[in-house]
UniProtKB/TrEMBL annotation:
Gene3D superfamilies: P-loop containing nucleotide triphosphate hydrolases
The family this protein is said to belong to: Belongs to the ABC transporter superfamily.
Stretches assigned to coiled coil: none
Species this protein is from: Ramlibacter agri
Annotated protein name in UniProt: ABC transporter ATP-binding protein
Membrane-related topology note: Peripheral membrane protein
Length: 278
């Protein structure tokens, strides 16, 4: 059996604040195979986004990874100097944020930002970088790619901006994508298009994907495996079909029961009971 692309063992990320210590990520362990899509699900505040930020080395103070191991392509990331982490981000591993305006600079043209993402990691000419940017926009289904390269972020729709962010992530052919609820603010039609494009891109590139979301329907359509998070811990993980069809942990069952379509017509919507993570 080949070595996993990503191995997370006992990961803990804490925030020391005035009221005490917040255990945002508390002993999380999972692995990600090459070419695999993993869904990381849970309600808001469960720690799923902070897990992604911890892997990428993007936890801001007062947050800090206090324990555990993150091995990417056999290389330990915890404690890695910031310069070496920056060399990996956007190159071997990339993150797609929920709000594209967190990624895009509002005062720079799309082409300028995409070219800089290429030039930061590879010694190529600017013309070549813009050519690759043009190709990346076409890959994610953006029409009139040359015109979009000359546009500013505010001139694009929300769905178009999210496609641009995905295209930027693709530029250096990373082996790991971490997508932090990138379709939450989009309408259903655009969401479906982006999910299709992400499935197609992972198949074509052989890259691995961690899809962070609270939407179980999206995970069911996209992922092969699922990790369910609650209060900073993973309470259940396994094959996505098995977990969603026959959840074992009461929190997972509670998530499933909270979906309106699963409740008989005319019955009151079931609500999520209080659970304590193990």
């Amino acid at each position: 059996m080949s070595e996993p692309l990503l191995e997370v063992q006992g990961l803990s990320t804490h925030f020391d604040v005035r009221g005490g210590t917040v255990r945002a990520v508390d002993g999380v362990s999972f692995s990600l195979g090459r070419g695999e899509v993993l869904g990381l699900v849970g309600e808001s505040g469960s720690g799923k986004s902070q897990t992604g930020y911890s892997i990428m080395g993007l936890v801001d103070p007062p947050g800090k990874v206090v324990a555990g191991s993150i091995r990417f392509e056999g290389r330990e990331l915890v404690g890695l100097p910031s310069e070496q982490l920056r060399a990996l981000r956007g190159n071997r591993m990339a993150m797609i944020f929920q709000d594209p305006m967190m990624t895009l600079n509002p005062v720079l043209r799309i082409g300028t930002q995409m070219a800089e993402a290429v030039l930061a990691h590879r010694k190529v000419g600017r013309a070549r970088a813009l050519e690759e940017a043009h190709h990346a926009l076409e890959r994610v289904g953006i029409p009139s790619a040359g015109e979009r390269l000359r546009s500013y972020p505010h001139q694009l729709s929300g769905g178009m901006r999210q496609r641009v962010v995905i295209a930027i992530a693709l530029l250096n052919s990373p082996k790991l994508f971490i997508a932090d609820e990138p379709t939450t603010a989009l309408d259903v039609t655009i969401q479906g298009q982006i999910l299709y494009e992400m499935q197609k891109l992972t198949r074509e590139t052989g890259a691995s994907l961690i899809w962070i979301t609270h939407d179980l329907a999206v995970v069911a359509a996209l992922a092969q495996r699922i990790c369910v998070m609650h209060k900073g811990k993973i309470v259940e993980q396994g094959d996505v079909d098995q977990v969603l069809r026959a959840p074992v942990h009461p929190y997972t069952r509670g998530l499933m029961d909270s979906i309106p379509s699963r409740n008989p017509r005319g019955q009151r919507l079931r609500t999520m009971p209080a659970f304590e993570a193990p």
